[in-house]
Amino acid sequence: VPFISYLSGLLKTQLLSDDLVAGVEIRCQEKGSCPAACHLCRQAGRETPSPTPVLLEVSRIVPLYSLVQDNVTKEAFKSATMSSYWCAGKGDVIENWCRCDLTALGKDGLPNCSPLRRPVLRLAPHLEPSSMMVALEWIDVEPFIGYKVSDYIIQHKISSPKNENSVINYSPSLLTFVHLRNTD
């Protein structure tokens, strides 16, 4: 089966299915084929180049463990994922804190499976720098356990009026959320 046919089949299945994959858009575009007007491309015995499809466009992040159907496997996968996020893969997550493995203890005997962030010195966002003044802020707080950053790609779809030469432009912008779990 040619690759483009396989992808077209995927696209049709995605469109006809009742349970679409959340946040994933499948688009097939033919790129790289010769224009019909180009005489240089029409050579005897040469096939036209196969089109290059655009496969997947992920517009929303879904945790991997949410894709697993079996409940026992899902819980095990979720636990491993949370350990990786929160404890740098060196411990178990118990409610809202890390229980470190014995191998995660440092020379001082303290757990280092969820290391503290280093202090940050940065431009203060509430005061714009000028030629006379620059405002800085010092951030030195213990972090919440298990902060995680998820990126969401938001697309603005702009289309011209409906006619034969209709044009659709996608203007992507990135929105980042930080998920926090408090230790209180």
UniProtKB/TrEMBL annotation:
Residues 117-166 form the Astrotactin-1/2 Fn3 domain. GO terms for cellular component: endosome; membrane. Signal peptide: none annotated. It comes from the Eukaryota. InterPro entries: ASTN1_2_Fn3, Astrotactin. GO terms for biological process: neuron cell-cell adhesion; neuron migration. Pfam families: ASTN1_2_fn3. This is Astrotactin-2-like. It comes from Sinocyclocheilus anshuiensis. The lineage of its organism: Eukaryota, Metazoa, Chordata, Craniata, Vertebrata.
